[in-house]
C-alpha cells in the first residue's frame, strides 16, 4: 500500500476550527441552516457544528448520482425536512470533485428562494472541475487522487477513519481492501 496525500486528524481539526470561526463571524446575529449532504458530509458537519458560535440549524439531503462518469444527473432520495425560503443556507459537502453534484444541488436549492446560499466544502479537488463552483468556505485543496476517511468512503467503508488518506492506486483497493483496514488505529 503506497502512501498518497494524508491529512491527520489534528490538521483537519485545526482547519475546521478556522472555518467555524470564519462562518461564525460572517453569520453573526443570524441563524444559518447548515444543509448536510448525506452521507459523506456528516462527520465534517458534526465537527464544524460544535465550533460555531452562532445558533445554527441543521437539515439533510440524501442524493444518488446515476450515470457513472459524472453525468451530473442527481436524484434526491431524501429532501430537506423544512422550507429554506428566506433563510441563510450553507450547503456542506465533503468534497467538490467535478462540481456536478454541487451545481445540481445549488441550482435546486436556489429555486426555493433562500435569502442566501453558500457552499462549505472540506476538500476541493479543483483540478478535476468540469463546472465552476463558488466555494465560499474551503478546508483543503487536494490533488487528483482518490481519498478515503473522515466521511469519504470507498464502497461504503472508511468513513469513520479519523484521518484522510489518499489512495494513489485505486485498483489495489478495489482488488483487496483488507490491507487498508490497518489504517484504523493509525491516526
Ligand atoms: P462531484 O459531483 O464530481 O463533484 O462529486 C462529488 C461526490 O463524489 C462527493 O460528494 C463524493 O461522494 C464523491 N467523491 C469525489 N471524489 C471522491 C474521493 O476522492 N473519495 C471519495 N468520494 C469522492
Ligand atoms: Mg458525497
Number of H/I helices: 4
Q: From the alpha-carbon coordinates, what is the Rg to the nearest angstrom?
A: 16 Å
Shape: globular
User: What is the total tally of β strands?
Assistant: 9
Helix content: 10-25%
| Proportion of strand residues | 25-35%
Main sheet, how many strands, which sense, barrel?
6 strands, mixed
Mean of residue pLDDT? 94
Low-confidence stretches: none
What is bound: which ligands? inosinic acid, magnesium ion
Spatial order of strands in the largest sheet: 4-3-2-5-6-7
Whole-Å distance between the termini?
Answer: 16 Å
Order of helices and strands: EHEHEEEHEEEEH
What structural category arises from helix and sheet content?
Answer: alpha/beta
Q: Your description of this structure?
A:
The chain has 187 residues and is an alpha/beta fold. Helix content is 23%, strand content 29%. It is built from four helices and nine strands. Helix 1 (9-26) crosses helix 2 (42-49). The protein is globular and about 50 Å long. The model has no long low-confidence stretch (mean pLDDT 94).
Briefly summarize what is shown.
The chain has helices at residues 9-26, 42-49, 100-110, 170-175, and strands at residues 6-7, 33-38, 57-66, 73-78, 88-96, 116-124, 137-141, 146-148, 164-167. It has 187 residues and is an alpha/beta fold. A hairpin with a 6-residue loop joins strand 3 (57-66) and strand 4 (73-78).
List the keywords.
187 residues; three-stranded antiparallel sheet; binds inosinic acid; binds magnesium ion
